[in-house]
Q: What sequence folds into this?
């Protein structure tokens, strides 16, 4: 635990921050932590004892850690600590901050200092030491996690190393995987009770006909097999927990990553189609569970059975070694190229899925003359390519299956011959031969099942490769300046010879403008002149290749992206989410209440038409925007932008297509003296630009 004294609060919180970063595999020094905390405290000034958790959460966000301030019961704290979360609790009577870094059998692990020192504390002791309680049952905690799935993203990417990526994904589950391995080992040993009992029964019958030994053997066999069944049931339960965690961790990673994806990562991709690869998490779940249950059990049962055979006779030891070598060499040699072909097969499936999505998205185009035939021909072409790749992949898989089936027949025959000869020579008892045959039959039956698990393994590697396309999406840097944009009087904007890398006027001739805080200006340009590119630069979605862009005397690249977009709003391309009208305006912003929603709708002239809908502002909108018209959807984008009361508001082309009545209503709101924001309107219409304070031309020669 770490002391929070008034004179040393910054250093103390910085020490907590350093410890949290190191627990989440983020390297940071104390000086950097103090710097981040200083910026956060400047951005959110106030009483330390009321805001220290807020400071800690915002500092974690600046350091690429996901932090949330929540109320938890002690049981929930224990569960989260067991699952790997780091938790920062209240202060005790001595002013120490409780930092929970893990869970041990004896209690929770509390971090002490910025390094690896820990001590164990019981839940009851932790509860008794807490002096800040929001309720008798719940306490306020800051939950901290690394946002990216097991740190699997790195600069080199892992597209060419899917097996390495797979190992990284399942690394957090190793503690539970070890439980399955131990259970499988004991279950494999207990399953030997059947051949050993048969051996004893054969020997007993050979030397006498007493019933009592048979009854004893039957009872003992039942006990061993029942215990083995119990272990198998426990394995199944643990595997189910692993499946749930895999799903939750992949979903949490993407839920964090996708809203923060660097726009440049999607330049050559179609985002909605790319996200289809998340469905491969189901393959990841099922195949990992099957391999842990059946694959591991087969491997360990085979190992244990071969060990027993080795003790029967040296020749059987040689048989074991020969069988292992044959299986290993045969499967490796015969499986060359299977992983690559499996990945190629998976790619073709997604190409076909993407084509079907295109057909459903472009309804008018594919209903036109020739459209249905075009849709069918392209689908037929992709299907033919898939079948060709599938045939190539199955050829490799089939020869592995034939190999294991053939080996099953040969090995069973060889063992019977060698075992019979050893019995005739008196070097092996009849009971041992029967037991050996039962063991080898089990081993060979397991080998026969390898075909299913080999195919599952190839599907698993292909699924991990597809998920990798999502994991490797670059996210925006989370660090940056905080608090410099909260002026309350609009933001100034300075553009100096700004250039883009696209082939528009902005790229060819550059753009220079100086806009004062609170000013209303228009930027006029023809289609393709670079207006949208300029708007995206202001919003931090794209970077200029030359020139300088300053917002409020700061370079946007120096600002934390989420805080930049809390001050800057853009209304451009229509983006409707599958939710209610109110949620389409809020977008998760807790400070936007229902009254804010209704006010924003009223300012854009939408409220009157929306309240006539069956559910009013709670009316669900489809991704297509229905039941709203195209112009209503554009107005909704403006309402979304102004609902957050931004310092800088950018309207990108939406006004150009509005009828005069709606345009007058919206401009009256945007240009109202009651609004303090700086307004930039991107337009192709000079009559719209004439209604603003100034205008700039985005073309070869700029004129103010």
A:
């Amino acid at each position: 635990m770490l002391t929070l004294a008034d004179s040393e609060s910054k250093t103390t919180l910085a020490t907590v921050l350093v410890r949290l970063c190191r627990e989440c595999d983020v390297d940071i020094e104390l000086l950097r932590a103090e710097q981040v905390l200083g910026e956060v405290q400047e951005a959110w000034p106030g009483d330390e004892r009321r805001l220290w958790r807020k400071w800690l959460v915002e500092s974690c966000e600046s350091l690429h850690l996901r932090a949330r301030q929540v109320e938890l019961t002690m049981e929930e704290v224990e569960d989260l600590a067991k699952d790997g979360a780091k938790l920062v609790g209240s202060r005790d009577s001595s002013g120490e901050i409780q930092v929970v870094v893990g869970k041990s059998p004896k209690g929770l692990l509390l971090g002490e200092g910025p390094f690896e020192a820990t001590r164990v504390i019981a839940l009851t002791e932790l509860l008794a030491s807490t002096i800040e309680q929001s309720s008798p049952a719940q306490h306020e905690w800051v939950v901290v996690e690394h946002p990216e799935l097991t740190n699997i993203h790195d600069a080199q990417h892992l597209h060419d190393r899917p097996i390495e990526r797979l190992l990284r994904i399942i690394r957090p589950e190793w503690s539970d995987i070890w439980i399955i391995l131990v259970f499988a080992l004991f279950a494999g040993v207990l399953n030997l009770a059947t051949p050993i009992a048969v051996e004893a029964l054969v020997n007993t019958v050979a030397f006498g006909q007493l019933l009592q030994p048979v009854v004893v053997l039957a009872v003992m066999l039942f006990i061993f097999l029942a215990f083995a069944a119990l272990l198998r049931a426990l394995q199944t339960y643990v595997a189910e927990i692993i499946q749930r965690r895999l799903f939750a961790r992949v979903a949490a990673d993407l839920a964090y990553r996708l809203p923060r994806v660097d726009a440049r990562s999607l330049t050559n991709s179609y985002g909605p189609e790319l996200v289809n690869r998340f469905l491969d998490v189901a393959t990841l779940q099922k195949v990992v569970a099957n391999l842990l249950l059946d694959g591991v059990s087969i491997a360990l049962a085979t190992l244990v059975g071969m060990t027993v055979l080795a003790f029967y006779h040296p020749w059987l030891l040689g048989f074991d070694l020969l069988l292992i070598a044959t299986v290993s060499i045969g499967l490796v040699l015969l499986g060359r190229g299977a992983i690559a072909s499996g990945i190629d097969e998976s790619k073709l499936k997604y190409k076909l899925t993407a084509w079907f999505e295109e057909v459903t998205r472009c309804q008018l185009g594919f209903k036109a003359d020739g459209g249905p035939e075009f849709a069918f021909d392209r689908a037929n072409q992709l299907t033919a390519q898939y079948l060709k790749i599938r045939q190539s992949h199955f050829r490799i898989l089939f020869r592995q299956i034939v190999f294991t089936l053939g080996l099953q027949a040969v090995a069973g025959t060889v063992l019977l011959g060698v075992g019979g000869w050893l019995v005739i020579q008196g070097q092996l008892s009849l009971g041992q031969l029967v037991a050996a045959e039962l063991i080898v039959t089990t081993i060979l039956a397991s080998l026969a099942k390898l075909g299913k698990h080999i195919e599952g393994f190839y599907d698993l590697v292909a699924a991990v490769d597809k998920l990798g396309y999502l994991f490797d999406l670059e996210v925006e840097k989370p660090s940056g300046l905080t608090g410099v944009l909260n002026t309350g009087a609009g933001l100034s904007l300075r553009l100096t010879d700004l250039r883009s890398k696209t082939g528009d006027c902005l790229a060819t001739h550059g753009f220079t403008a100086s806009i004062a805080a609170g000013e209303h200006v228009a930027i006029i340009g023809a289609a393709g002149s670079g207006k949208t590119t300029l708007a995206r630069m202001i919003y931090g979605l794209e970077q200029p290749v030359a020139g300088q862009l300053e917002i409020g005397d700061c370079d946007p690249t120096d600002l934390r992206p989420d805080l930049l977009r809390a001050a800057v709003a853009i209304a451009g391309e229509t983006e409707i989410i599958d939710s209610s009208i109110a949620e389409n305006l809020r977008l998760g912003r807790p400070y936007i209440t229902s009254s804010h929603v209704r006010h924003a709708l009223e300012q854009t002239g939408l409220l009157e038409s929306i309240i006539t809908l069956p559910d009013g502002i709670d009316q669900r909108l489809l991704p297509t925007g229905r039941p709203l018209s195209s112009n209503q959807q554009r107005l909704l984008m403006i309402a979304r932008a102004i609902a957050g009361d931004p310092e800088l508001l950018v309207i990108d082309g939406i006004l150009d297509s509005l009828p005069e009545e709606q345009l007058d209503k919206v401009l009256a709101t945007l240009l109202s003296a009651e609004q303090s924001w700086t307004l930039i309107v991107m337009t192709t219409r000079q009559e719209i630009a004439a209604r603003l304070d100034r205008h700039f031309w985005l073309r070869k020669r700029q004129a103010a």
Observations:
- The chain has 26 helices and 17 strands.
- The mean pLDDT is 81.
- The domain at 493-697 is CATH 3.40.50.300 (Rossmann fold).
- Residues 371-424 form the longest helix (54 residues).
